[in-house]
Amino acid sequence: MESAIPVHLQCPRTRQKRVPDDYQPPYPSFVARFQPAVAQVAMAYFGLQFRGSMTAQPREALAGLEQAFSAANAPGHWDRASHVDEAGYTNIISIAYWDRPAVFDAWFAAHGTHWASGANKLDGCGTFTEVLRPRMERFETLFSSSERAEGVAVVSAGMSDVVQEHAYWGGARDRMPASQTEALAPAGAPRVVTEGLYRRVVPHDNVCLIRSGQDWGDTPPEERRMYLEDVEPVLRQGMDFLRDDGLAIGCFANRYMRVLDAQGAELEKSFGMSWWKSLAALERWAESHPTHVAIFGAAMKYLSALGPAAKLKLYHEVSVATTDEQHFEYFNCHDRTGMLRA
Amino acid sequence: MESAIPVHLQCPRTRQKRVPDDYQPPYPSFVARFQPAVAQVAMAYFGLQFRGSMTAQPREALAGLEQAFSAANAPGHWDRASHVDEAGYTNIISIAYWDRPAVFDAWFAAHGTHWASGANKLDGCGTFTEVLRPRMERFETLFSSSERAEGVAVVSAGMSDVVQEHAYWGGARDRMPASQTEALAPAGAPRVVTEGLYRRVVPHDNVCLIRSGQDWGDTPPEERRMYLEDVEPVLRQGMDFLRDDGLAIGCFANRYMRVLDAQGAELEKSFGMSWWKSLAALERWAESHPTHVAIFGAAMKYLSALGPAAKLKLYHEVSVATTDEQHFEYFNCHDRTGMLRA
Question: Keyword Iron: yes or no (chains A, B) (predicted)?
Answer without folding.
Answer: yes
